[in-house]
Amino acid sequence: MNFNITIGQYYPTDSILHRLDPRVKLAASLSFIIIVCLIDNGFGYAISAAFIAAAVWASNVPVKLMLRGMKSIFFFIVFTFTVNIFLIPGGNILFNLGPVKISAEALNTALLMTARLSIMIFASSLLTLTSSPIQLTDAIEYYLAPFKKIGVPSHQIAMMMTITLRFIPTLIDELDKIVRAQKARGADLDTGGAFKKAKALIPILVPLFLSSFRRADELATAMEARCYRGDIERTKMKQMKFGMQDLYAGIIFICICSCIIMANFIF
Amino acid sequence: MQLQLDGVNYVYSEGTAFEKKALGNINLNIGKGEFVAIIGHTGSGKSTLIQHFNGLIKPTSGKVLFEGADIHENKKLLKTTRQKIGLVFQYPEAQLFEITVFKDVAFGPLNMGLSKEEADVRTRNALEIVGINECDFEKSPFELSGGQKRRAAIAGVLAMNPEILVLDEPTAGLDPRGRDEILFKIKEMRDKLNITIILVSHSMEDVAKLADRVIVMSDGHIVMDGTVKEVFREVGALSKIGLAAPKISYLMKALKEKGFDVPIDIYTPNEAADIIYNLLTRQKSKSGGAK
Hints:
The structure holds two protein chains of two kinds. Chain A is mainly alpha-helical. Chain A has helices spanning 16-19, 22-38, 42-59, 63-69, 71-87, 104-130, 133-144, 154-184, 194-200, 202-225, 244-266; strands spanning 93-97, 100-103. In chain A, a hairpin with a 2-residue loop joins β1 (93-97) and β2. Residues 1-7 of chain A have low confidence and may be disordered. Chain B has eleven helices and ten strands.
């Protein structure tokens, strides 16, 4: 079994992107993804791709590590590309491979879709690689705060996300231990049909659920024992600061986005 | 030799930034019927080492031989080895999952492909050895007490009739009574079933009481390997790697320094009690004679 999850993992190092305010990064990557979804022009994509490449370079994250985390999504991109190129009808036939026809429109759409998906994935990976989960939830809490007035429990949502993220590695460790223990009792997890494989998961999932319930219970008790209460204007140990570099980054980002949008209208 | 480790090295996450050498050049022979204790500080590689014994971890280099055959030679051999070398993990009660205690213990034997009747017999035997009463067989394993849960989990491994039983800290987190019960059962198993037992422990008292041979691990290496007396004699070397001899030996040493005629290589409270008793009666009769 392979528990190697790289996507969504924080890569701790020092770079301009790491030092930026997570609120800026979150807003920028979200709006960037939306813009990339809306444009449909080669020049726009060229600028976006160049921008992303520059951001990757500035992030100090090894490109190899980034690509490794995207392995599973790579299949999805190839799949989209293939479906698009073969299934979109069009008049202008470029290739004619027996019964399969590939039109210029299809090639165009397939390439645009691939570019769109790749850029989106790079943008979102950059966000999670350069901001720790805690920073991200802080940023989300900040953006949700205005909705508190209409009854959205923004602090509680952020707290739940933080706790969930915090416990993922713990549960992976636990899972690994249980798998080993059951293997030592002769459990066979890798062979057999789908039904047999699903059944083989019971001896692993039952103990895993039990231990996560136990952990949740213990954590709740520990928090209560320290008189934790949710939303009562808690202060933070690490305050987010919007500094000069965040301002510059924001201005540069807005300029680039305007270029992309203009390119889309002009060409 | 029943179990043999030949130049075993193990490196965690090789080739990544998180690379860590866990075991370095381990050479080890364990004979049939031995009672071996493995001691060492947290992170010294004890748990990694014992997972090599039944092939849960494949060495980065080197060989693990069970009865002369390399256990990683083929998948079938690995599977049978896993049955013959029973491994009880730390806090084994965390792996209980079935509806009843009986069914949970039968999980291992059924995985071995035994018939239901045969598995039932083995399950019954195993539960009897660890001392779980018949009236608890149909209970949910989660209704048992901490010590009982631990014993049921050990029975789950024992039911596979292993030739070597490896126990990782079997008494961790139990109250003194539960601890004594488990240790007593382990001793009993060894005497009755005549199987090889490998015990990982933090408690020097338990080790002194049960084991014949002690292996000391530090920093992924075996630093000492000998009888209980040989190893615990090296108090200086032990304390250098964060370990100590059984507490009672310090008492004997203190008595010796005060001028009493006692041996200092005594490692169990029972032996110490006898010696001190003898010493006292001797002194009494001496002073009685002087009168």
